[in-house]
Amino acid sequence: MKAYILFLFLLTSACGADRPTTSRTAKDDLNPKMTNAVNSFLKTLDATQKAEVMHPLTDTIRYDWHFIPRERLGFNLKRMSEPQRKAAMNMVEVVMSDNGYAKIKDIIDLENVLRVLESRPPNDTRRDPENYAFLVFGDPAAKAPWGWRMEGHHISIHYTSVNGHISFTPSFLGSNPGHVLIEVPQKGKRVLGEEEDMGYELLNSLNAEQKRQVVLAEKSPYEIFSVNQRQVTGIERGNFEGIAMKDMTSAQKELFKKLISIYLDRYHVTLKNQQMKQLEKAGMDNLYFAWMGDTKLEMGKDKGHYYRIHGPTILIEFDNTQNDANHIHTVVRDLTDDFSEDLLKEHYAKSHSGGK
Predict the structure, then answer these.
(1) Residues 279-300: pLDDT tens digits?
(2) Of 43, 157, 252, 311, which sits 20 to 30 A from 34 (CA to CA)?
(3) Would you say which domain of life the source belongs to (predicted)?
C-alpha cells in the first residue's frame, strides 16, 4: 500500500479562482484570465525551462498529441518546484469548471491506483502522477495568436487564443480503472461515471424501433474512432449514423441535451456557452446518437460499450471496452474549431492582405 501516494498540491485549489454564476459571451474576461495565468506560469521558469516550454504556434509539435503513458515534451510536474506546480495547475483551473477541474485531479490520482493494481514500485515512471507536461505555443504576452496544452496519461487538453476567441478542442479525458474496485482509498470512484450512466439512460429511454436505429453493432470498438489525429478521421464528417434528436420524443430530447451538457460542463461556462451557441446555430435537431456493444451495464458481465454524439460541428465519443470494460476513453472534437485552425487561416489571410 506504500505505492499509494497522494499529491496534496493536486487535491487542493491551485488558486481559489472564483466561478461565474451567469452566462457570458465568448469574448468576456476568460481570455485575459487565461493569458494572465499562463504568463504567471512562464514567469516562474528560468531561461532553460522557458526554452523547453515555449514553441512557435506553427510548430507541428502542437498536433502531436496522445493520451497514452509516454515520455512527453515540455515541463512536467515532477521537475517543477511547488510554486511552479501551483502556477501550472492554476492554468488548468482557470479554463475548467469546478467539476471539470475535479475530474482532471481525479484522473491524475488514478495513476496511484494503477501503481497498486499493477504492483508497481512507488518510483515507477509508467504509472506516474507527476508525468503531466505543459507546453506553450506562441507568446501570450503578445497580441498574436497563441496556445498551450497540458498532457499526460488520459489527459490531453488544448487551448488556442485567436483575437479573443478561445478554442478548447481537441479535449481528451480517460479513466483507468473506470470503476475502482480494489481496496484503496479511491475504492468506488467512477471519474467518468456520469458520462457512462447518462449514455445508458438515454439508450434505455428509446423504444425497440429507435434502438434498432441506434445500435450499429453488437460489439464495441477497442478504441474511439477519432483516436489522436490532428483532424478527425475514422468517422466521415457528414455521415451521421444512429438516431437524430429530431426523431426523439420531448423527454428523450431532454436526456440527450443532458448528456451533451455533461461533457460541456467540464469547461469554463464561457466555453460551454460558446459551444452551445454553435450547436444551436447548426441545429440541435441535427445531432445524432449512436451506440455499439452491450446495451446493459452489468459489472463483470459487460463486454464493452461505445457511443457517440455527432453533428455538423461536433463529435463526442465514449468508449469503455478495454480491461474487461473497465477503462474509459472520452473525447470532444469541434469539427470546425479544433486547434482554432479555421480562425488561424482567416487571421493569417488578413495579416497577409494588410488587414483588409
Answers:
(1) 999 999 999 999 999 998 776 6
(2) 311
(3) Bacteria
